Fold this sequence. Notes:
The chain is an all-alpha fold and about 400 residues long. The protein has helices at about 5-15, 20-40, 50-70, 70-80, 85-115, 120-140, 160-170, 170-200, 205-235, 235-260, 265-295, 300-325, 350-370, 375-405.
Amino acid sequence: xxxxxxxxxxxxxxxxxxxxxxxxxxxxxxxxxxxxxxxxxxxxxxxxxxxxxxxxxxxxxxxxxxxxxxxxxxxxxxxxxxxxxxxxxxxxxxxxxxxxxxxxxxxxxxxxxxxxxxxxxxxxxxxxxxxxxxxxxxxxxxxxxxxxxxxxxxxxxxxxxxxxxxxxxxxxxxxxxxxxxxxxxxxxxxxxxxxxxxxxxxxxxxxxxxxxxxxxxxxxxxxxxxxxxxxxxxxxxxxxxxxxxxxxxxxxxxxxxxxxxxxxxxxxxxxxxxxxxxxxxxxxxxxxxxxxxxxxxxxxxxxxxxxxxxxxxxxxxxxxxxxxxxxxxxxxxxxxxxxxxxxxxxxxxxxxxxxxxxxxxxxxxxxxxxxxxxxxxxxxxxxxxxxxxxxxxxxxxxxxxxxxxx
Length: 406
């Protein structure tokens, strides 16, 4: 989270100025190098003093690569897909990241339990990173298609980077989206990171927490697919975002309540499912909405700044929520947490604060966010001009034909 903040600004500039191809190739090489360094860092041949710095160097390179991929779906959708497919394309690209995290979280314990080798796990991680690096290097030939799929694709780099940042900072609708949806990203990060700690003090096993986290992601992808398809058909970006953020707040509030109950596995799972379904569902739509309200600023800049906002707020929320766990649990004997002070901590207040922050962000978004769909209006204007030009040429053609005949 920390590395993504300063690197994110450079990433948005690279994507909007140098294009997708260079950014994807650079990201894949950084990711592969980081994965290999982590694996090499735990080899027995490496001196003890060099192990930790090498592993952290690999982790840092992977963190530098992350924004290059996370910021790219909106740019990819704008450059390669027509207006009736952009939200769906954004969803497919965006949701590949949490699906990858889900696969890693499910696969890692199996590898460790069967091999008892961290080296084997890190080596397995390095394999897909290497394959993707090869595919990106030899397979990505162009940043844009031969024929632009929409009028806006021709002008996606129309605003210089610094001018684009200035336009974003003076755009009221965008700043509301930046703060409110960035808060939503932060809450999701906290939920994913702290889920096991929140549940273990109430007697739920780490396996159950893992199941809740997995269903949180799976149903989130389903929700994102459904909502993106709907928005592509209706163009109701604002309405869909506001409704989903309100439903996400209700689901977060429900989780904050039911996670304090013992032996209520079904209800806790339902809360995780609903939280993921509504919360993840709004992500690709909100990213497209950021482009619509900030056009003609570059797509990577508008989407990337929201992600950076989410990372900054994630750090603040993580520190805040963990600082609020000062009250000891009434009955720590039933805790399944690992030995230590965590077994005696109560997460009731942090859970309620997290729900309150989610509700606050949703209320502010519903009340203060108003915008025109600038990109769609610009495309409609271009289409209208093309239609008028075609009609004029046709009329002139007929007039010329009549003159020749006469």
